[in-house]
């Protein structure tokens, strides 16, 4: 009898031979395993791209006072006639201290976000009927004005239903007691909605794109006839009573999910959206784009709203871990996620506007979203044809407390205060690893959107047979016009560990012949990594046949153009150019050779490499090649008419003349400027000195006065302690983070007896930014912790080491220690 593994081996070889036979290939000898190190060839036919002329969506679009027009066709959005790809980051102004809004907006912009989305939570602004509050952290107008100051576009999500893990999804409690039916065209309900919209309209007056302002889009409602929130007015153990009309209860889902087309009230939902749009326009909200959440058969207004899609890879609204389909390439323009949808996808651009850049933990489910899952998700969306991406959330926050209750969605079991969302920028403004990984794709999109947006998605023949649990086959796609484009590769899958895709080559058949990436040797795509590579790319007039390094950005400084590429771990860069009218000179840390009418540039060093391309008509373009680690430390610095790059461990926020640098944990840091500069920058305090200047970069070292603090701790019980900290943030610091290292179920923090912060334990220390608590009248923060029970439902999401500890006792609580991490701040002035 044959061993099962041998049967599987033989079966795979027979299937392979059948494919070869049908394609007219002869393989000799049979049943011989590939030799170790043999290149694995993968092929995709770029000639199959679906060429179609874009069709304008007439009801969408608008101009600003300068005549610049935003327009929409069924493939992409244009601004001033140039294709753009919006990168939308969600932040909720009412969930963050208003005195730090501008800092957060600048952080988002530094991360490559070009559009901000924000919810207007009805119940936070009208907690009591007829009493609207637009002050302090609720000052919507001030927030939009700060977006305008920092030149970033805005999407205002006006509800009336929002969801957003807010009590009742944003609908005030007092609405429940009114003789009306919510989320319908009930006249009394519309009366209250119109009052809300009129109040929002007053806040947004003269801030629209047509006025020269930043507001380019309004989202109507949210997940209409798809999802809802439980009413906060409920009783323990009671089944959820959702914030929907009676007619829609049968079609209401918990969270984002797949729905059926079986909705006899679908047209009523679309009509309600039309009514909401009419009320918004009546309130003065005239914008180029009205959007609607279109996933899961949700309601839209055909041809009048831009339907956007979503993807959440680590949902908490399912009972267990699952492998999601969101790391598998597909043509999103034809087959959107969470289909079926209530529209013809080919009539609209694929705009993945609500991508889970983290997830909110519930009491029962606490998945941790790994940083490299996020850029892998964006790679997959871009490779699938998305011409808009957006994050929910990009910036976390803290849910405010109402006069009579917490505004969080307590019925669903969310934290009472924390809305960190594990976002790229956290609840207290912490910049995380995911921020830096996503930034690499954002810089690429912002610079090369005109090249990428018109390209169509083409998938390899076997793509339809690759499932989420298939970790063997290479996952890849191309965006192309038939001759040129970008190759997308992804080697990440949620909730499982992938393996290296070793020694691979992708052969792209174009109208002008094959492009082999690479030509002579294979490359290895490491586990958990992803990659975007150009082919037949116009680099300042020279044809870059391919590169095994990824494009980051381009710029101009000192009168010369430059392009920046970065390498993925384990892949040394190779560039292949057509020899015609192109030459390579001034090489650094790389080699050049010619063969078969082509020029090859290679590097086998981890050091930054550089070369100069002389192209047609004598154009000269510098190419810089850096490692991925260094690329994640990159920031764009606009100085007069030049764009330079700053590389630093510090976070760099710039306004064109100077850079504010925030460095967490150390009073010493360095930064490098590319291309090099001749004038020594100045610093507002501390010391700055030159530590190196080579042909590529100028490097400087900063030393700031060191702040040394030790947490004073007073234990007041097995579950309680007090931390005594400075009454104000010490000079020279931007923030002071309190790190609470513990193993437990939940943690709560109090000032003067009031709950000000909370956390559901996820296997890592709890981090609290203290600057927002300046002036609270006390420098003592009290903590209360609860232990993990051995049968806790969320244990599935905790690290195995914690599960083992928690499984040994009925209750587990260990408070390990408390410490500070300072965030230093300095200002670098460039002359």
Weakly predicted, low-confidence segments: 1-35
* Structural class based on helices, strands and sheet pairing: alpha+beta
Shape: globular
* CATH architectural group of the largest domain: Alpha-Beta Barrel
Q: For the record, what CATH class of the largest domain applies?
A: Alpha Beta
Strand percent estimate: 25-35%
* Percentage of residues in helical conformation: 10-25%
Strand order of the largest sheet: 6-7-8-9-10-11-12-13
How many domains, in number, for the residues? 5
State Rg. 28 Å
Could you report the average pLDDT, rounded to the nearest whole number? 93
Rounded to the nearest angstrom, the distance between the terminal CA atoms is 80 Å
CATH superfamily (homologous) name of the largest domain: Glycosidases
What's the tally of helices? Answer: 11
Largest sheet at a glance? Answer: 8 strands, parallel, barrel
**Number of β-strand runs:** 49
Using the coordinates shown, work out and report the CATH topology of the largest domain.
TIM Barrel
Give a written overview of the molecule.
It is a single chain. The protein has about 850 residues and is α+β, with helices and mostly antiparallel strands. The protein folds into five domains: about 1-35; about 85-370 and about 385-420, Glycosidases (TIM Barrel, Alpha-Beta Barrel), CATH 3.20.20.80; about 540-630, 3-layer Sandwich (beta-galactosidase, domain 2); about 635-705, no CATH class; about 710-825, Sandwich (Jelly Rolls), CATH 2.60.120. Helices cover about 15% and strands about 35% of the residues. It contains eleven helices and 49 strands. It has an eight-stranded parallel beta barrel. An eight-stranded antiparallel sheet has the order 16-17-18-22-23-26-29-28, covered by helices on one side. The chain is globular, with a radius of gyration of 28 Å. The model is unreliable at about 1-35 (pLDDT under 50).
């Amino acid at each position: 009898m044959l061993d099962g593994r041998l049967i599987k081996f033989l079966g795979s070889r027979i299937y392979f031979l059948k494919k070869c036979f049908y394609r007219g290939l002869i393989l000799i000898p049979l049943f011989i395993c590939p030799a170790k190190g043999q290149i694995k060839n993968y092929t995709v036919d770029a000639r199959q791209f679906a060429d179609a002329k874009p069709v304008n969506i007439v009801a969408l679009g608008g101009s600003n006072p300068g005549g610049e027009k935003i327009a929409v066709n069924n493939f992409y959005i244009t601004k001033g006639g140039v294709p753009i790809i919006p990168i939308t980051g969600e932040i909720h102004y009412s969930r963050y201290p208003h005195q730090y809004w501008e800092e957060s907006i600048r952080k988002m912009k530094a991360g490559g976000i070009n559009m901000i989305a924000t919810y207007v939570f009805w119940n936070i602004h009208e907690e009591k009927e007829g009493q609207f509050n637009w002050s302090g952290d609720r000052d919507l107008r001030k927030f939009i004005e700060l977006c305008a100051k920092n030149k970033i576009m805005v999407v205002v999500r006006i509800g009336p239903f929002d969801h957003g893990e807010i009590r009742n999804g944003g609908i005030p409690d007092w609405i429940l007691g009114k003789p009306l039916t919510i989320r319908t065209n009930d006249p009394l309900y519309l009366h209250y909605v119109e009052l809300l919209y009129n109040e929002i309209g007053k806040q947004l007056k003269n801030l629209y794109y047509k006025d020269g302002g930043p507001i380019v889009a309004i989202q109507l409602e949210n997940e209409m006839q798809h999802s809802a929130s439980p009413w906060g007015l409920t009783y323990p153990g009671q089944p959820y009573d959702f914030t929907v009309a009676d007619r829609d209860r049968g079609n209401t889902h918990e969270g984002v999910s797949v729905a059926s087309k079986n909705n006899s009230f679908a047209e009523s939902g679309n009509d309600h959206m039309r009514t909401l749009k009419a009320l918004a326009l009546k309130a003065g909200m005239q914008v180029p784009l009205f959007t609607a959440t279109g996933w899961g058969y949700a309601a839209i207004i055909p041809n009048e709203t831009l339907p956007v899609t979503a993807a959440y890879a680590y949902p908490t609204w399912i009972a267990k871990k699952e492998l999601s389909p969101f790391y598998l390439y597909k043509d999103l323009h034809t087959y959107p996620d969470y289909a079926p949808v209530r529209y013809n996808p080919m009539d609209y651009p694929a705009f993945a506007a609500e991508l889970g850049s983290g997830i909110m933990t519930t009491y029962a489910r606490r998945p941790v979203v790994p940083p490299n899952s996020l850029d892998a998700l964006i790679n997959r969306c871009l490779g699938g044809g998305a011409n808009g991406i957006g994050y929910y959330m990009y910036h976390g926050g803290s849910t405010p407390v109402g006069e009579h209750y917490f505004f969080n969605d307590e019925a669903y079991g969310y934290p009472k205060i924390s809305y960190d969302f594990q976002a790229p920028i956290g609840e207290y403004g912490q910049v995380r690893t995911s921020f830096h990984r996503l930034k690499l794709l954002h810089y690429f999109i912002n610079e090369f959107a005109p090249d990428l947006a018109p390209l169509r998605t083409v998938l390899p023949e076997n793509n339809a047979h690759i499932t989420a649990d298939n970790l063997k086959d290479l996952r890849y796609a191309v965006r192309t016009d038939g001759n040129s484009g970008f190759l997308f590769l992804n080697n990440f899958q949620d909730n499982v560990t992938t393996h290296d895709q070793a020694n691979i080559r992708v052969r792209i058949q174009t109208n002008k012949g094959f492009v082999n990436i690479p030509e002579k040797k294979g490359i290895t795509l490491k586990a958990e990594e992803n990659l975007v590579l150009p082919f037949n790319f116009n680099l300042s007039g020279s044809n870059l046949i391919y590169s095994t390094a990824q494009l980051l950005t381009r710029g101009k400084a000192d009168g010369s153009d430059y392009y920046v590429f970065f390498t993925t771990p384990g892949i040394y860069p190779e560039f292949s150019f057509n020899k015609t009218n192109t030459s390579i000179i001034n090489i650094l840390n790389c080699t050049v050779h010619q063969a078969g009418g082509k020029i090859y540039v290679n590097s086998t060093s981890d050091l930054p490499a550089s070369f100069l391309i002389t192209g047609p008509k004598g154009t000269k373009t510098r190419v810089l090649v850096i490692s991925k680690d260094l690329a994640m430390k990159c920031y764009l610095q606009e100085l007069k008419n030049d764009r330079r790059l700053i590389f630093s461990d510090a976070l760099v926020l710039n306004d064109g003349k100077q850079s504010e640098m925030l460095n967490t944990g150390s009073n010493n840091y360095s930064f490098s400027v590319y291309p090099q500069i001749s004038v020594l920058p100045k610093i507002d305090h501390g010391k700055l000195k030159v530590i190196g200047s080579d042909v590529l970069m100028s490097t400087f070292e900063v030393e700031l006065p060191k702040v040394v603090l030790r947490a004073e701790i007073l234990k007041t019980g097995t579950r309680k302690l007090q931390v005594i900290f400075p009454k104000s943030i010490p000079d020279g610091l931007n923030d002071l983070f309190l790190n609470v290292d513990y193993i437990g179920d939940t943690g709560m923090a109090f000032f003067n007896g009031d709950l000000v912060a909370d956390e559901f334990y996820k296997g890592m220390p709890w981090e609290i930014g203290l600057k927002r608590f300046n002036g609270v009248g006390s420098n003592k923060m009290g903590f209360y912790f609860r232990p993990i029970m051995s049968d806790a439902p969320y244990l599935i999401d905790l690290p195995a080491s914690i599960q083992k500890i928690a499984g040994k006792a009925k209750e587990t609580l260990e408070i390990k220690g408390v410490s500070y991490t300072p965030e230093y701040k300095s200002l670098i002035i460039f002359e």
